[in-house]
Amino acid sequence: MHQSRPMSGVRMGWGVFLTCWALAAVVALVLGRDANWDLRNYHYYNAYALLEGRWSLDLAPAGSHTFLNPALDLPFYMMTQSVLNHSPRLIAVLQAGHLGLLAFLVLLTTNIVCHGNPQRMTGTSALVAAFGLTGAATLPEAGTTFNDLQIACLVVGAVLALLLAAGADDVLATGRATRLRLLSGVLGGAAVGLKLTAMIFPPALVVVAVIASPLGMRRQLRILVLLGSGGAVGFLLGGGPWAWFLLERFGNPFGPFLNEVFHSPWFPQETIRDTRFLPSGAWQALAYPLLWARRSTWLVTEWPVADPRFAVGLIALLIASAAKMWGRRARSMYAVSDYQIQQQLPMESLAAQRASWAVMGFIAAGYVAWLAMFSILRYAGPVEALLGVPVWAMGRDLLLRRAQAIAVAYGLLRTKLFCRMGTVWAAIVLGACALGTLYPEWNRQPFDWAQEPHGAAAVAVRHVNLPSGSLVAMVGPAVSFTAPFITGSGVRFIGAPHPGEAGPAVFRTAMAETVRTTAQSHTGPAFAIVEDPDDYDREVAAAYGIALDLASCVRLPNNLTTLVHLCRWR
């Protein structure tokens, strides 16, 4: 009979959570104020449009990104529209809470993987968690508005709920296991509803549920029904209202995305999908993690990056899988059966082994889906955050298993030898990967802006009051963030859908025709916002009847970029 034993370590609680938040806040403050391209392109405008009722006035100022769910953008926007805007460091600290929460959830998960008890943090579980949390996809997002960390919290929380549900099954707590599996589905569904790029993770959660659940087709089918039911509820909670709004207004609950299914006349019939970072072929796909293990640019992100964690973690996963297949043969050399080992292992150790394989199943399925759909490093955050698990599992199976068999024979299983060996192994691998990591910069700016407008602010743009009835065209991406600072009676903003989003077909949609008609029929004052008057997309502007008066262009000072000009157009 398996018996639990007291577990040393730090109890997980508010103290650990606040420590995680504090460490994340330090990272955010060291990196600087967030001024990323996506914030300028659509995160800021989308929240403004929802709260200020701009949907009855404007026409897609942020292009196809205008139609993304703005729910996760609201907290940052509301902070910058309050007195907190003049305390950008405080906003960065608050935004860093997302990374702090993710770190806490990953710690709970690695606690289960390393020793089976989620409530006790040991040195080993902390190092296993730190391996992924310090990766190039996760750590540089501290304090940013990308919203990938919020999605990672939901997805890792869903994985954790499934592991806890398996533990509830061990003690015959059927009701608790049912609630946890429903919760897992809700968290995974909410992630997809809030940000569509999370669609790659529900299949990986199914893999976790199957590996961690009791054997038996009927029981596993029941578990999958619970997970799917929770997922539907979560999607409706996270994205249902926004999807209904888009469906009613444009005939597609996802805006321009998946329009090959919904066939809304407002958008191109082709799939709008960023394929810039996908592998060019099967051989490159197989070697992909090795390619950004060293410095690379425009491989999995726009910025220079180097990070060996994916390569090390995935190779470790393969080695651990091979070690498991050959483990029975290795133990037979010492005449020790699986039954002997399992009988002497505490219940927590059995739970830890099951959890490690469930997490590795999530990593494998999530990585394959990510590689096939996006290959954009930021979107792989939930996978990266858990990459320490296969590294630990490989160390356990290769370095500890043989010693474990010997120890069973001599009754030494419960000594501190294995814990120490695991901690040393985790520290060595983490240190080696840290030395080879180059983090993307993500357009960070100083908290105290030395240029005009001077001073400290999270978002600052010089206010412009335009004549009544002005029409403002956002020509090009990454300029719609200026909209909240451009005022005037009856001012409207229009966008210029770009052919780069779906080819020339974007010019033949109902949205493009409406923008074109609005621009050509406008008889009042007309203005345009561009990044650089000397280098803007004249083809796109001409397609919508927008001809800039370059002599009229003036800089629009702001603290997110030194670019952006306000021009008149004819």
Automatic annotation (TrEMBL):
The UniProt record lists the keyword Acyltransferase: no
Superkingdom of origin: Bacteria
Transmembrane segments: 90-109, 121-139, 151-168, 188-211, 223-247, 310-327, 357-377, 422-439
UniProt entry tagged with the keyword Transmembrane helix: yes
Keywords, sorted A to Z: Membrane, Transmembrane, Transmembrane helix
Protein name: DUF2029 domain-containing protein
Naturally occurring in which organism (per UniProt): Muricoccus vinaceus
